[in-house]
Amino acid sequence: MHYRNVLLAISVLAAFASCTKNTDNYNPPDAGIHGAVVDAITGDSLQSEQPNGFRIRLIDEGYQDATPIDFWGMADGSFENSKVFSGTYKVVPIEGAFFPADTQEVAIKGMVEVQFKVTPFLTITASAAAEEGQIVTKYRISRDSVGDKITVCKSLVSTHPTISNSIFDKAVTHDLTGTDDNEILATEFTDTLPGLEGGKTYYVRIAAATNNALNKYNYSRIIKITLP
User: For the DUF3823 domain, which residue ranges apply (predicted)?
Assistant: First the structure.
């Protein structure tokens, strides 16, 4: 009798599991969003880092108190999420080295392209030259809107193309906390990064930061250099 009861219990559980499986067949995400975040002043793509550069936030307007969907952007300012359900969303870039951006209402159906214009805390223009065993950088820092105090700037060099403030082999750092911002903005910085191997390819980048709450850096474009 006990054996028959066990078999019956197993049969009921199997039937329940089968029913649950049949009623759990939700359609997968059928749409996506991609695009770029650009500097509103220069029109160039926002230079950041990955994964800690900036995020894109989606809020589904079809649901009250919907949980935001956040995903990381790329170091070159581009972004993509191909796993989104069709619908109308509020979309905005967040947590980057830029002032608060405007939110866009986007109808996402299929793959939709969106562009955001933001005002970065700082804009950096830079050049780099190869010399025997070293690289010399020259750069300027500018800004269109006054925000927090400028605190630091750095010349970075790495053998990895994903160079950032957290990924580098050598650096020259300037502590700017005691320097007036107007003096910083009027200065052309020159840094020398020595002790490099001839015939090797390096990636060079300038990073600078303000005293912003998230400690995010603004960046120059990455410069690729092969030493003689």
Answer: 33-119
Residues 205, 140, single domain; the answer is: yes
- Angle (CA) 101-178-142 rounded to 5° is 40
- Going by C-alpha positions, the residue among 117, 94, 137, 147 that lies closest to residue 44 is 117
Summarised one tens digit per residue, pLDDT across range 205-224 is 999 999 999 999 999 999 99
- Is the CB of residue 148 less than 8 Å from the CB of residue 121? yes
Q: Which domain holds residue 151?
A: 123-226
Q: Final residue of a domain: which of 91, 118, 145?
A: 118
The amino acid occupying position 15 is: A
Specify the CATH number for the domain of residue 178: 2.60.40.2060
Q: Are residues 128 and 219 in the same domain?
A: yes
Q: How many domains does the chain have?
A: 2
Q: What is the pLDDT of residues 174-205, one digit of tens each?
A: 999 999 999 999 999 999 999 999 999 999 99
Tokens of 5: 């009861």
- C-alpha to C-alpha distance for 207 and 153, rounded to whole angstroms: 6
Residue where a domain terminates, one of 79, 101, 118:
118
The answer to whether the CB of 136 falls within 8 A of the CB of 192 is yes
In 3D space, the residue among 32, 224, 221 whose CA is nearest the CA of residue 125 turns out to be: 221
Phi/psi at 166 (5° precision)? -105, -5
Using 50, 70 and 90 to split pLDDT, how confident is the model at 2? Answer: very low
pTM above 0.90, yes or no: no
Backbone angles phi, psi at 9, to 5 degrees: -60, -40
